[in-house]
Amino acid sequence: MTAQADENYRWSKVLNDCQIGAWEVDPSQQSLHVSAICAEILEISSARSVPLYAAKRLFASPFDRIFARNVELLVDSKQEFEETLSLLSGNWVQIRGRAVCQQGQQKLYRFCGSLELVSRFAQESCIQFSADSGDLYRYLFRDAPMPMFIWENETLNMIDCNRQALLKYGYSREEFLQLNLRDIGYPEDFSVLKVDAGSVDTLGDQERKVWRHRNKAGDHLLVKVTGHRVDLAGKKCSMVLIQDITGRLEAEEQLLESLKELSDYRFALDAACLVMILDKDKQVVYLNQKFQKISGFDKESIEQASLKILYQESDRELIASCWDTVMAGNIWRGELRGRKRRGGSFWADTVVIPFRDNQARVYQYIWVGYDITQKKRGDEALAKERSLLRAIIDNLPIQIYVKDAAGRHIINNKYQYEDLLGAKSEWETLGKTVFDYFPEEIAAGMDAYDRKIVEEGVPVMNVEEFYYDREGKQVWLLTNKVPLKDAKGKVVGLVGMSRDVTDRKIREENLNRLNEELESKARALERSNQELEQFAYIASHDLQEPLGMITGFLGLLEKRYESVLDEKGKEFIFYAVDGASRMKNIIMDLLAYSRVGRIEEKVKELAIAEVITNILRLHKELIKQKRAEVTVGTFPVLRVPVAPIQQVFQNLISNALKYQDSGKVPKILVGAEERENFWEFYVRDNGIGIPRGVQDRVFQLFTRLHAKDQFSGSGIGLAMSKKIIENIGGTIGFHSEVGKGSTFYFTVPKTIQ
Ligand code: ADP
User: Fold this and answer.
1) Most exposed among 53, 131, 209, 338, judged by the fewest C-beta atoms under 10 Å?
2) How far is the CA of 471 from the centre of ligand 1 (A)?
C-alpha cells in the first residue's frame, strides 16, 4: 500500500467512524461517486456511483434544485457550499462541498465534500400527513430540524409554519398564522423580496445574504434563508428554511473585536515602547522594531553575544538587582541605561515583568522600556548648567542667598556662608535664620526687612545696611533683595545679593571729612584774603597821605635850604625824594592790585585798537628815544570791563619796552587771533628774556627778576594782569628765551559773564 493510499484509508476510516459520508463529483462523466456511508445515507447502498441527474432526484422538491444548483456553482466557479437539505425519504442531511486543488497540479481541481444525517424522518407522521395532503414536502416541512414557514406572495401573510419556527420566533401557532412577513422582517428587506419572490433561483441566491428578523420579544435574529416557490391551493407562495446564525456572528464579532483590541494594545506598545521578551533561561525570544531601531541590536546579535552586550559594565550592580527582583517573581521598575551597537547609550524607563505558569514557575520575562534618552540628556544638561551656575555664584565676590517665606536659608553661596555666616559648608547653614547668626536686635531688624519684601512682593534695590561682625567691626553691605515667586506668581521667599562696601564706605567717609576740612580751610583762606586785600587797600590808601607829606616836605627842604646844603646834603635829599617817589609808585600799584575784583567793573564795548593806540601815544617819548619799532595788528571790538583790560595791555606793552638791552633797537609786535570762543592777544618783544629757572615766579606778587638799578618796577604788574584775566574767565602765559625775547599772551572770552 502506498503512503498516499494509506493516508486515504486512514481518513476514510475516520469518516466512517463518525458516520460521515464522502462524495466526489466527476464533471467529465457528470456523475457522483459516494462513499459507503454516503451511499447508505442516500439509501443507494447498491451503487457507489450515480449520474448527477439521478443524484438530484434523491432530494425532495425544492431541495433537489438547490442541490443541483450548488453542484453546478461548485464545478463552474469553485464556490463552496453548505446546505441542510431534505431527501425524498424525508430524512434531513447536511451537505458540504468544496473544490480541492490536486496535489502538484495547480489548475486541476477535485470537487468533493461530506454528507451527514442530521434528522431522520418519522414514518408515522408521514402516514398521517400523507392521508391529508399527499405532498411529501408537507411532512418534511413539519419535522424539519430547522425553522420553516410559508407565506403568500401577494399579501405576505403567513399561511404555515413548523414547530422549529414557533420555537425560534416565540409565537403560538395561532399567533404565527396571524402574522405577516412584515412583522418578523424589516422594511428595507421587502423591496428585494417582492421583486424576487417569484424566482426560485433568486430566492435561492438570497441564502448568501444575511437577513434580519425579530422574534415576539423583539430580539434581533440574524438568519440565512433558503427559499423556494410553491403553489398551495392555487396560490403562489414562498416556503423558506431559516438558519439562525446570530450566535455564530456575534461570537465571530466578539472574537474579531477582542483580537483587534489585542492587536491595538500590541500596536500601541510596539509604537511607544522598547519591548523584549526573554524565556526563563534569559534567551531573547522577541525584540520589537523600536528596540532594534534604538539599540541597533537584533535578536541574533544579542543571542550571539549574551545580554551583557546591552548594558555597560558600570551598571552591572543595578542589572543584578533587577534580575534578583524578577527572578523572585516580582516586578522591577527603574531607569536603565542601554548600550547602542554603534557606541553611545540610550535611557529607558523600564518595567520588567515575570510571567508564571500554573505551577507558579517563572517561564518568561517581558521587558518594556520607555525611551527617556532625550529627557535624560536634558536632565544631564540641566545638571551641568546647575553646577556651572553654582560655580559662578560661589566664586562671585558678593553674597548671594535665597530664603523661604519663613526666612530660612535655602541657598547660600560660598561668600555668604563662609564670610558672613562663618560656616564651613553651605549645608550647615541651610534651614537656619538670621537669629541663629546675629544678635537679637540686629537679627530682628533684618528679619522685619525680609518679611516686608515677602509680604509686599516688591523688590528693594541698592539699600545700604550695616552690621557688626564677630570681631565687633562695622561692616557695610549694599543689598538688593527681590521676592522669589513660584510658577503661579505666589511669593515663596526672596533672593538677596549683598556686596561688602565697607572699604568704599570708609573712603567715602574720609573723603567727606577731607572735603569738609578743605571747605573750612578755603573759607578761612578767603577770609584772610579778604582781610589782606582790606589791609592792602587801607595801607596803600592811608600811606599815600604821609608819603605825600614826606615828598612835599623834602621838596620844601630842598627849596628853602638849597643855599646852605652842600653837595652831599643835596644828594641825600635826591635819594630820599627818589625813594619816596618809588614808594608812591608801589603804593599806587598795590592799590590798583587790591582794587581788582573788589570793585565791580561794568562790561562795555571797547575797540581794542583804540586802547593800543592810546598806550603807544602815552609811551611816545620812550619809543622815540629808544627808536623802538612797534608793529600793531588788527583788533576786534569786544564787550569787556574797560579799565582792567586797558591795564593789562598797558602792563605788557610797557614791560616789552622796558626789559630791553640798552643800545639794542626794540622790536615789538602787538597782535590778536580769533579762536572759537575767545580772542587771544599777544605782545612780543626782542628783549632780554626771562631765565628758565625763574619763569614760574613771574606772575607772583612783588616778583622782580632784575636789579632795581637796572630796571625800575614794583613787581605787581604781571600779578595784577593775571588776576584781571582770570577774573573774566581767561588765561595768561608766556614764552621766553634769554637774549631773544618774550611773548606774553592772554585770552578774553567772547562773552563775559
Ligand atoms: P615790574 O613792575 O617789575 O615790571 P612786573 O610784574 O611787570 O613788575 O614784572 C615782574 C618781573 O618780570 C619784572 O621785574 C621783570 O624782571 C620780569 N619781566 C616782566 N616782563 C618782562 C619782559 N617783557 N621781558 C623780560 N622780563 C620781564
Assistant:
1) 131
2) 65
